[in-house]
Protein: Smr domain-containing protein
Organism: Polarella glacialis
Amino acid sequence: MALNLLSLMPEAMVVPNVITYSAVISACSKGGQWQMGLNLLSQMPGASVVPNEITYSAAISACSKGGQWQVALNLLSLMPEATVVPNEITYSAAISACEKGGQWQVALNLLSLMPEATVVPNEITYSAAISACSTVGQWQLALELLSLMPEATVVPNEITYSAAISACEKGGQWQVALNLLSLMPEATVVPNQITYSAAISACSKSGQWQVALNLLSLMPEATVVPNEITYSAAISACSKGGQWQVALNLLSLMPEATVVPNEITYSAAISACEKGGQWQLALNLLSLMPQLKILPNVVSYNAAMDAVSGMGVGYALFREAFGVGMYPQFWSNSYSTVNLHDMSCGAAVLAVRWWLAEVVPHLLSGPTTPKLEIITGWGKSQKDVQDAVFQLLHGCQLLSRIDQNNRGVITIDGTQLESSDLRRLFTPPS
């Protein structure tokens, strides 16, 4: 709509100016259209409109939201030759772009360069830099930045504290996160839903479910209303602590607190049931979601499949998840290669069983023996998936090994496979 209004201006005999272009670029930023934002910026000289720091800030922000940190930095570097002086908003947008790109060192470098550019950092700039540290779990650096703010005569706000608490959460420092929360009143900063959610999440990551529940119970007296993110974090804490009954109780209390559960809340509750060995309850929660107009996502299905991985009911669940497009990357180039990214261990085992039983026998009937590959990846969680798949293959006495050129890929020797043996690996849903 913003672009359409811009295009209608000439026939209305209205000449767009720098404010008009800045507003439209900002609209592109909010709509995630970073290329369109850059295109508008490049059109401005031809329309005899000179961009200013607001225009550049909007374009850099568009790049930030599009995950284009290099493009954002390039725009920032081009500003002096366009005789436009960056301000704290421009730098904050560029630092935020680095944060979203996981470039915390670059973000901190930008912050350090601001004084020589005679730009004074503000609480938004510091919050963006702390967030950049948070993204990669650099909690000590995040705290150091927070401690430097008074010296720079910058007053931290609830966004700054929330970012610092989030950094502690990612670094597994739940006590430090709680300490920051407790220090906020004396800094005359009022915690909000985001702050409490981050602190509860920090407790969740460290298995401190009782502390997480205590924080949730303290929110009303701090006149902070819990939302679905807060409840999801608390339910997740109960899940990690093996407290499936408490998790379900929290879920049941949400309507009374006029909080509507979402797919994240249900996924956390399903995960709690899975960890507690309550597979029927896990499936029941998953089946309730569409009735409540909540669409299950890949996390919901993964948690449910972890609960029923070794059962016949798991096969039907995998077919359902696959049928509704939960794993779009599953087919990688050909039917002889499968990609298990975005899958939990239970989902991966069911997927490989189905592929070996339903797809590979058709490939074996061809003129040549196919090269069979399973892409698991090699991150921390993907290593668990790879181990689970290896356990399945070894249990089925199928010869397999890690690819010599890529340790995130398992290859299977197709010459020793018999279609009749493979078909027994997966029981089709009745």
Remarks:
- The first helix runs from residue 2 to 8.
- Residues 102 and 258 are 36 Å apart (CA to CA).
